[in-house]
């Protein structure tokens, strides 16, 4: 089973039904629900997602969808080691550096995001949801 990290942009496409990326995000989360892939997110996701979803759907709706998300994904810790590595990294975006090092130290196989350039300084594979789904289809 693949261990994937799902970046918050992919989750927002799903939860807010943002076109044109809603469909591949929904397909990805169907695989997660069916336990065909193991998905993780960073602890940072929850505060960021709450902030955005609250603006669109209100606080209670935001909490409801985040409770459902929490059931589907593993939450990667952001600890002192991750912060130290992020501070010392050459990532231009500090939050992306935190996400990357959380992935690196939790055996993530691939990062799924629309913003692949955000992780270009890392060594982990980075794909869009569409690319990841295409790779899975080729294997089956």
CATH architecture: 3-Layer(aba) Sandwich
CATH hierarchy class name: Alpha Beta
Q: In this structure, how is the largest beta sheet organized? A: 5 strands, parallel
- Low-confidence parts: none
Query: Which percent range fits the helix content?
Result: 55-70%
Find the count of extended strands (DSSP E, 2+ residues). 5
| N-to-C series of helices and strands | EHHEHHEHHEEH
Helix and strand arrangement:
Elements: E1 2-6, H1 8-15, H2 22-33, E2 37-42, H3 43-57, H4 59-72, E3 74-76, H5 80-88, H6 94-104, E4 110-112, E5 126-127, H7 129-139
Parallel strand pairs: 1-2, 1-4, 2-3, 4-5
Helix pairs in contact: 1-2, 1-3, 2-7, 3-4, 5-6
Task: Give an overview of the whole structure.
This protein has about 140 residues and is of the alpha/beta class. It has a single domain, classed as 5'-nuclease (Rossmann fold). It is built from seven helices and five strands, in the order βααβααβααββα. The protein has helices spanning about 10-15, 20-35, 45-55, 60-70, 80-90, 95-105, 130-140; strands at about 1-5, 35-40, 75, 110, 125. The chain has a five-stranded parallel β-sheet, sandwiched between helices. Helix 2 packs across helix 7 and helix 5 (about 80-90) crosses helix 6. The mean pLDDT is about 95.
């Amino acid at each position: 089973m693949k261990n994937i990290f799902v970046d918050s942009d992919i989750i927002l496409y799903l939860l807010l039904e943002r076109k044109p990326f809603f469909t591949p995000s929904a397909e990805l989360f169907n695989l997660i629900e069916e336990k065909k892939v193991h998905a993780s997110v960073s602890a940072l996701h929850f505060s960021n997602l709450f902030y955005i979803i609250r603006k669109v759907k209100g606080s209670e709706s935001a909490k409801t969808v985040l409770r459902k998300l929490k059931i589907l994904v593993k939450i990667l810790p952001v600890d002192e080691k991750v912060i130290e590595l992020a501070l010392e990294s050459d990532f231009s975006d500090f939050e992306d550096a935190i996400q990357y090092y959380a992935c690196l130290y939790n055996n993530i196989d691939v990062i799924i995001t629309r913003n692949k350039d955000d992780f270009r300084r890392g060594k982990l594979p980075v794909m869009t949801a569409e690319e990841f789904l295409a790779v899975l289809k080729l294997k089956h």
